[in-house]
Amino acid sequence: MKKRIAAVAAAIVSAAALTVSASAYNGYLCFQTGAWSYRNGWSDASVGKDSKYYDDIIMNGGGCDEGTYEDYDDYYDYDLGTYAIPVKWTNASFDGAGTYTVAIDDFDWSLDGSNAFNIGMISTDITDTEAINITSMTVYIDGVAAKTIDNPVSELTSDGKGTNFYFSNPWNDGVGAWTTPYPTSSLKVEFTVEGGAAAAPAAGDVAAATDSSKGSPDTGIEDVAVIAGLALVAGAGIAFTRKRK
After folding, report:
1. How many CA atoms lie within 13 Å of 98's alpha carbon, on the beta-carbon side?
2. E strands, 87-143, in order
3. Does the pTM exceed 0.85?
4. Domain assignments of the chain as residue spans, ordered by start
5. Where does the chain show beta strands of DSSP type E?
6. What region, left, alpha or beta, does residue 113 occupy, with left being phi > 0 and alpha being psi -120 to 50 degrees?
7. What is the pLDDT of residues 126-148, one digit of tens each?
8. I need a surface site. Which of 83, 92, 115, 204 has the fewest CB within 10 A?
9. Closest Cα partner for 83 from 134, 120, 119, 35?
């Protein structure tokens, strides 16, 4: 009976651990080149994460004639009035302290003739930087670390759905424009997060949860109560038992 109870409890605790460890926050690399080719913040209603364009670079500020980039004519979008060119993105998911990466690959950085960024940032769904925050960013250009920014300037989005952390913004004196080096092959940002959720219980670590029968008769009643208690709190990722007095 005890072995069976332990197995059931292990399954419940494992499920709870999986639930708690689901990432609560997301980060996306976003930028606007000097020629206004861009990927906007994730919550943008028209070209954000929930649109069909979020895996693309939208060229020249949404205003570009068909035929401008003949090699990419298959990606001309008449609704936008410009090209929406698909690229390879690395997005980040996180729920607590650690180092994470966002990146873009497979984009021809010479395409729009730019040699500098207007905006460069990590767009996140963090709304409370007191609870969880990005405390540093290292920008890699073509695979080489170009600059580390401690305590990057951040700004809550106008819709209140997230926070942007900047490495380029000429309209903010605390940030300034990123001019050099400029990518020719890749752009990556590694960032450090502090705060966030506590670590989830280790899956399979149920010794404490299944030890309640020690010192009491093996009636099975207490074990059923243990399982009920585990199931009740599994959604919160907490497992506890209660000894019978």
Report:
1. 13
2. 88-90, 92-94, 96-105, 117-124, 132-141
3. no
4. 2-20+199-236, 25-196
5. 25-33, 38-39, 56-58, 76-77, 82-86, 88-90, 92-94, 96-105, 117-124, 132-141, 144-150, 154-156, 163-168, 187-196
6. left
7. 999 999 999 999 999 999 999 99
8. 204
9. 35
